[in-house]
Amino acid sequence: MAMVNVRRDVEDKFYRYKMPLLQIKVEGRGNGIKTVIPNMDDIARALNRPPTYPTKYFGCELGAQTSMASERYIVNGAHTADRLRELLDNFIEQFVLCTACKNPETELVITGKSGHENMHRDCKACGRQTTINMRHKLVAYILKNPVNKKEKGKKGKKGMTAEANVGGPMVFEKGAEDGSGEDEDASPSGTPAPGDQGVPTSGTDIDNVLGRSDPVLDNPDAAEEVSKKLAKTDLNGDDDDEEDADSPYAVLGGWLEDNKDASDADIIAQIKEQGIVGKHKVLVEVGHHLFTDEVGKEITKRIPLLQALVTSEKHQKSLLGGLERLLALSPNSDDLLAAGTTSKVLMALYQDDILDEELVKQWGTHVSKKYVDKEKSKKVRKSADAFLKWLDEADDESESE
Ligand SMILES: [Zn+2]
Questions:
Q1: Residue 43 Cα, ligand 1 centroid: separation in angstroms?
Q2: Fewest beta carbons within 10 Å, which of 187, 210, 213, 329?
Q3: Distance 105 CA to ligand 1 centre (A)
Q4: pLDDT-based confidence at residue 173 (cuts at 50, 70, 90)
């Protein structure tokens, strides 16, 4: 196997840190063409990172879907080895090398409470901690798929470094020792349960979904049919359990995160595949993971999908909860909320009859820590002020008529 320096800008052949040269194999054709990286596992091992991180990084940088099931690391589309090697260099620069001494023996350490996480590189060579650009799209993925070898009860900063050495490349550190009680309410679905190994290999990524076509939503009658079916299956009772990383909801969430551009029909196919058709908690995942910071614009394109999925008050509440997470947990949350994004989104949902007036009003006046922590929950509602005021004024007007 051809080996290269982890830092390819270093020409010294005695440079200590080597990795296999990235190989590719382009498979399939047409819409289904994809680039397989057969030696991603070995590369990742040399970098002391899970193979999912660089693969996902390629996806982020190329705007391509990735698939990481059954230890096959795939980027959709045809890409050259040179391009991917360049991107791998960038990944190493941004997520591996110590920025102070350029040594690759680092660990990614996550600090802070759920919703307020921060991440840095902990360098074993020089001991310095250097920051990661939290705005990179890969960060959200890493936060959701941390390498968590820490065991329950081992908390606190003191033991961190020592444990990290034993425990693998990355340590997920909870911000506060006494925070565990709150986490249950505040934590988003991605945080692995204590004891969960959290190794992000398969599960969150589903095999290539391109090429699968389901004409459901191209046809309004069919959409209505789906909507009816979805409404029916909602009678299956409550589903408030299953917060763990393997739950169909978590899988759906991960898939949505990776496939934000998927067609409505593909999303519905995915919900079917997970066996959670009609469940209101589907909307938590959709609200949280289908959109980006541009949700104010994106939401209008997803109205038909949401109309098909939201079939009861419970569904509406779950959708609000998911959107609350999206807005509160974004690295740019403060900017988003200050810009009144919540109002924009609610307005679109209200005007297209996805949300009922009474329900939104109720939501707007009741801070809850069900989806994010209280402080954030307050902020999200404050960012809905303009819309809620508008609702009230519209009410007054119709009363005085
Ligand atoms: Zn260093």
A1: 21
A2: 213
A3: 8
A4: very low
Query: Separation of 127 CA from ligand 1 center, angstroms?
Result: 6
Residue 356: phi, psi to the nearest 5? Answer: -85, 145
Distance 46 CA to ligand 1 centre (A): 17
Range of the domain at 140: 106-186
Mean pLDDT, range 153-166, rounded to an integer: 34
Are 225 and 364 in the same domain? Answer: yes
Domain co-membership, 327 together with 377: yes
Tell whether 289 is covered by a domain: yes
Higher pLDDT, 119 or 190: 119
Please provide the distance, in angstroms rounded to a whole number, between the alpha carbons at the two ends of the chain. 80
pLDDT in tens, 222-255: 555 555 555 444 444 444 444 677 889 989 999 9
pLDDT value, residue 389: 87
One domain for residues 313 and 369: yes
CB 104 within 8 A of CB 97: yes
Helix (H, G, I), strand (E, B) or coil at 30: helix
So what's the pLDDT on residue 265? Answer: 87
Picking from 76, 95, 114, the residue at the C-terminal end of a domain is: 95
pLDDT at residue 174, rounded to an integer? 36
**C-alpha of residue 268 to centroid of ligand 1, in Å:** 47
* CB-CB contact of 94 with 136 (8 Å): yes
Phi, psi of 199 (to 5 degrees): -75, 115
CATH code, domain with 272: 1.25.40.180
Higher local confidence (pLDDT), 111 or 205: 111
What does the radius of gyration of the chain's CA atoms come to, in whole angstroms? 22
Q: How far is the CA of 35 from the centre of ligand 1 (A)?
A: 34
The reply to whether 390 and 242 lie within a common domain is yes
CA of 108 to the centre of ligand 1 (A): 13
